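Two proteins were folded this term; both appear here.
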Amino acid sequence: MNPSRLLQRELMGISAVWWREFKVFWREKSRIISSIVQPLIWLFLFGSGIGASLSVENVHYRDYIYPGILTMSVIFGSVFFGLYIVWDRKLDVLKAVLVAPVARISIFFGKVLGGCTDVLLQVIILFSFSFLFPAVDLRGIPQALLILLVTSIALVSLGLALGSLLESLEGFQVISAFLVFPLFFLSGALFPLDERLPSWLTGLVKLNPLSYTVDGVRGALLGMNRYPFWVDLGIITLFASVMLIVGSVMFSRMK
């Protein structure tokens, strides 16, 4: 087949899978609402409650955890996107997609793009509440959005890899929760990384790639970062590259 026609066919396959994932997301209004309400509960109930007696470097605690809650939204939305692989397999929808005359890696990338689009729409809606947090510098939103996008690519790929391995919804939920909660709580989303932390906890936080997402977003929005932005972005980009490779291999081998 002509290489240009082959490329066109693969791109059409990617766009078709992306459009299907977007339509599924848009039709689930309850999913959209819950993905927005849950972070707001963390910010205004948890953040305001703790913030009544605590501030970090003269910044209200609610403002301080805002970058962390944005990252939390990306973590949960991206990893749990892999659940749809398990669900589609049970409904035999995935079988119909896999027999299409398109390479599996194109289907995988279409799903990654679909998952990232869904997650970024949620994040953009959360960014619309930025004006409620006085310490947030709105000029840093493009930088924050960039690092959240790269993080979403990494975690959607991770979720799809898990979905390719597991055949039951219950198994996926257990395994993904086992991964998601440590990734979130060890990212520094809810506490500052300073000398008061135990050394073992500091080590685990530094090993967690999502710590650099939180640091990059916090630096962009609040100017409170431990590392230069390019270091944070570089580490997350490396993590995303590894997850894309792992995810595409696992998806290609899925039965």
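Next, the second protein.
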Amino acid sequence: MNDTDYIPRTLETTLLRALEQFPAVMLTGPRQAGKTTLLRHALASTHRYVSLDAPDAREAAVTDPRGFLAAFPAPVILDEVQNAPALLSYVKERIDDDRGARGQWVLSGSQNLLLAAGVTESLAGRVALLRLLPLSLRELAREPDRPLPWERPQRPPAGAPPPGPGASEPPPDYWPTFVRGFFPQLAAEPGLDPGLWHDSYLGTYLERDVRGMAQVGDLLQFQLFVRALAARSGQLLNLSALAGELGIALGTAKRWLSILEASYQVFTLRPYHANLNKRLVKTPKVYFTDAGMLCHLVGLRDASHAAAGPMAGTILETAVIGELLKAALHHGETARLHFWRTATGVEVDVLAQAWESGAERLVPLEVKTSATATARMARGIRGLRADLGGMVAPGYVVYLGDRRLPLGDDVTSLPLSEL
């Protein structure tokens, strides 16, 4: 990719800061999220690059790790390092031989399941762990005020009178973006067919990552599990019922869900529990980390169908949660996200945990597909504040309009573009 095609990533600043403080940096994330592109762009002048995806490099790293590291001395980027996990012990040896050095080793891979064990055992205390997800809306636009590459304004209904003097532009239409998804290649090459791309991605993921990570024997059954999970995205997840429908053991369903989490395909949103004398729902929800992949798995190819269909709310929630995840992870932080739901049905879509002066605070967000915000949309946040009082920070209704408006009770409407 030429420099003119490179999409700047928020994580780049975090990466450079981590290299100044740690001997090694480990970068993980889903396939095709842009890890290699980011590393080769940000470190082109300082680090040599070698991929352990190449059979000859992988064989050399496995059969003669010390000789391999001598052939590719630091500072170096070792990409797809999960293909030679034993190499991490020898990297640790090199780090310990030169304890004062910083930023000499950059390790990257797509399979967090294998890498996490290797890092824990070999490089604890010596490595900064960073995660890269697909593009955020801000990264996708490249500039805060620049329209998205395939964004189009919403048109008024046929026969509607023209807007009067001083009328504002219609809010942006995000649905083509949601359906297409946020992977960098789809953004860099608008001519790519997103359906074919997602099919290819799923095939590569199933064959390479899933088989490599957990030796899943029945890939067809696993694919059915993934699609069934997509159909339940954003709902309270009854994994026992899902396993029963597919005719698989509950333990198998749990293991497959863990694989999807470890490879950053899904994110489990867990309920927030407070010490209250009331019944709270304790069942988690599962969201796909990319809205485009969710749309593909449930068969949505057209933006207008996605916007008007029964999964519109789930797709928007997926996009919002994805933005919150990226905002945290791309700054090197942990995403502390939950939802709130009582047995009587009082619910808040997302709670972001924060700390102010040592005290826990909860930032509540409701997610609405409407382009018009109303005070009624904040009903769940009001119920949350009645239960938790001072723990609850000012809240927001994230929606598809374009104006910040006070909705009462310390709740503000927040355009998705400002999330």
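Residues 3-131 form a domain with the Rossmann fold fold (CATH 3.40.50.300). The chain has a mean pLDDT of 87. These notes refer to the second protein only.
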